[in-house]
Amino acid sequence: xxDSNGKKHFHCKDVGYECDWQLEGDSEEQMxxxxxxxxxxxxxxxxxxxxxVEHVKEAIRRNG
Length: 64
What we know:
Structural class: alpha+beta
Oligomer: single chain
Order of helices and strands: EEHH
Helix content: 40-55%
Number of strands: 2
Strand content: 5-15%
Number of domains: 1
Number of helices: 2
Shape: globular
Largest sheet: 2 strands, antiparallel
Strand order of the largest sheet: 1-2
Low-confidence stretches: none
Distance between the termini: 3 Å
């Protein structure tokens, strides 16, 4: 989602997790490393395949 300040938003639950974690950022490129870190630390996902990255990007865009 992009808000009136031009920020983008990601919600972990939008990619299928029972998780209330959210992130706000200026770009997908800025947000992806933080999302990957969260996924590794909280959900035990240690490697993002390209398909997963695209799923995350779609969630960011859907919230826009």
